[in-house]
Design brief:
By secondary structure, the chain is mostly helical. The protein is built from 7 helices and 2 strands, in the order αααααββαα.
Length: 152
């Protein structure tokens, strides 16, 4: 039997990745539900495969429920109640989409993590809104302190 490293399984699950013969969804469910190494044999027992498949279907359905409402879908992508294997790919797409909108901008500086800091006025222009509306949205989401200096 292949020995699992429980910390590696946990890390894979938190990063939305598979682990050894487990898919990302199976790794998440195995880790969060406390399955033992003995239960996670290769190949997985048919009953356990079914349990994991049903759990994944439910988790994906819960995540996709707000799919017709862009704001709800955006919020779901940041909601850590959803498994990482479901929401992290969506977050990646959101970030790529936003960066595609910001391609024409050159950041005037960088933050402490070396990420580009963009002018709030330029971002408002690209998204066809006002700085006040961006600040109001930031207030509503608890991120206004990061926008007070006029950059994001």
């Amino acid at each position: 039997m292949t020995r699992f490293n429980s910390q590696e399984l946990t890390n894979a699950a938190r990063n939305g990745e598979g682990y050894r013969h487990l898919t990302p969804a199976q790794a998440w469910n195995a880790d969060t539900q406390g399955f033992t190494q003995e239960q996670l044999t290769h190949p997985l027992p048919p009953l356990l495969t079914l349990v994991f498949e049903l759990a994944e279907r439910k988790q994906r359905a819960d995540f996709n429920e707000p799919a017709n409402d862009p704001r709800a879908m955006y919020n779901a992508a940041f909601d850590e109640a959803h498994p990482p294997y479901v929401r992290l790919p969506v977050l990646k797409q959101l970030r790529e989409g936003i960066m595609n909108h910001l391609l024409g901008l050159a950041p005037p500086g960088v933050d402490y993590s070396d990420y580009g800091r963009f002018s709030l006025a330029e971002v408002a222009h690209i998204f066809d809104t006002t700085e006040d509306k961006l600040l109001a949205l930031a207030e509503a989401t608890g991120t206004a302190d990061r926008l007070r200096d006029g950059s994001i």
